[in-house]
Amino acid sequence: MTDTTPSEQSRPAKDRSWLMRTYAGHSTAEASNQLYRNNLAKGQTGLSVAFDLPTQTGYDPDSALARGEVGKVGVPIMHMGEMRKLFDQIPLTEMNTSMTINATAMWLLAMYQVAAEEQNPEMDPAEVAAKLAGTTQNDIIKEYLSRGTYVFPPEHSLRLISDMIAYTVHQIPKWNPINICSYHLQEAGATPVQEIAYSLSTAISVLDAVKASGQVSEEDFGKVVGRISFFVNAGVRFVEEMCKMRAFVELWDEITRERYGVEDPKMRRFRYGVQVNSLGLTEAQPENNVQRIVLEMLAVTLSKNARARAVQLPAWNEALGLPRPWDQQWSLRLQQVLAYESDLLEYGDLFDGSPVVEAKVAELVAGAKEEIDRVQAMGGAIAAVDTGYMKSELVSSHARRRAAIESGDEIIVGVNKFTTTEPSPLTADLDAAIMVADPRAEEAAKASLESWKAERDEKAVAEALAALAAAAKTDANLMEATLVAARAGATTGEWAGTLREVFGEFRAPTGVSGAVGAAEAGAELSAVRDRVKATGEELGVKLRMLVGKPGLDGHSNGAEQVAVRARDAGFEVIYQGIRLTPEQIVAAAVAEDVHVVGLSILSGSHMSLVPSVVDGLREAGLGDVPVIVGGIVPESDAKTLIESGVAAVYTPKDFSLTEIMADIVEVIRKANDLS
Prior knowledge:
With about 675 residues, the chain is of the alpha/beta class. The protein has two domains: about 20-420, Methylmalonyl-CoA mutase (TIM Barrel); about 525-670, Cobalamin-binding domain (Rossmann fold, 3-Layer(aba) Sandwich), CATH 3.40.50.280. Helix content is about 50%, strand content about 10%. It has a five-stranded parallel sheet with strand order 1-10-9-8-7. A five-stranded parallel sheet has the order 2-3-4-5-6, covered by helices on one side. A five-stranded parallel sheet has the order 12-11-13-14-15, with helices on both faces. α2 packs parallel to α4 (about 80-85).
């Protein structure tokens, strides 16, 4: 007798599940460490670290540019002391850690390696390094196109990436030194064809740069290809998204075999992790986000031959603010039910031989090849960044999608259709439905920085940074000098500042001037355009709108779409890109003599930065120029901002850009006492 039924006895063995992660980090290293250990105890099988914007862009918390941003969208890690706290009681030689870090990836990997060495003093450092497993995102090219946490010019960024890849292949062989990241391309408007083409073009540029550096032998180059990983987005059109992943697999195999001569099929395997689409999560009826997340997860797990190696899911309330631990647990449980309760992992690929799938994959492959050829003809991904081609294409694609949503051609349930709803118990108390980053995080980080500097060996730090600067002026691999700086006690801002002095900084093209906006004006936009023109005639000048991105938030998609639609509505638009101080925005408003200032902030720093702009305008004699704000702003914060002088606040639920333009005209008329 057995305790199993015949059907249970005949079940095939299950494949190993993908790595399960939640993207997390906030306020302080101590708070984030507690969150990580709690999530691991709940069955999470890997870590995915979110760093705050100052850490991502190479500033210490006492920098003027870090004001209001410390601990908001991730954890601040400004020196080795904080890195130790972040991974306290988490054995790094046994963990698989993903770090979403790009411009400062080399620095964070160095501190991670040193932290692991300190956890294992009985082991040789080389032995420790050989045990480390994980990923640094490290894809700068997509930062120029979509997310905005770049620091250095493209050629120097590519040098840092090449140095890291060469170092890890030899010293940390289990590490993925780069995550070619199409995730943010989709968030910036990329179609599936563009997402495939631009990310594979990035991979080609990176591999060509590593080969040209001469740091890896021909015999070892297959290992480089084998450690390249990808980080992909999955939208709610899950059939198309699943086919996109199969197209990725097919094209990557072809490129690595034909362009780079990699013979080992294991080294040609398309290895990717995924976070499903956050752009599609809605503030309106946010409970609908759960089924969206499930469908998007299926897109990257159903097809065994194109299954993700690691999955992290957003939480249902990310369009409202920072998810709570319970919300992250819910998303983890979605993965666990699919992996452990369903029979998905017991079968081979479900779609082999499907004519529908084969036709869609062939269509995506053909379109992506055509676009890759176009980018290569321009000189590759770096050249297509410099010319603004890829950025303009993404802004145009995003504008077309926004127009389709506004017209109703693309239905978003609960947003532009089926909007009648029962009150949701999930959002009955909006302030309790999200977590708020610790408002004391910035002061705590500054205190930690001050204490750290007081206790370190300043001479050793100065010598290490001088050696780093000297090495940066040669073709030496910078990873060794970076490790020396980490061990000496240098800070994130000091490491990045040293390289800024050698490499300089960079401002990427915004893509707005070359973007194509609304194809047809339509009655609603035509009416707004007439109102803009009439108001300008009454004031005797064309209406001018300044769109500003204060602080370190580089998520510029919303600001770009506002700028494009304002231009379509007849405004003269001034948009200078990302990472501006409040003082720079005020100076631009004065110089351009604008009629309205629009501020876009998605990092949660609105309560610090918006009042600074409002006060600055008042001090500059422009107190009558209205300020409007857009971003992820909780209702209570929006009320406070309006009470302090802001004319209007828009959040993700306000999806109609044309209606927003109509509102802005009326705000201008009211400010200028026009009837």
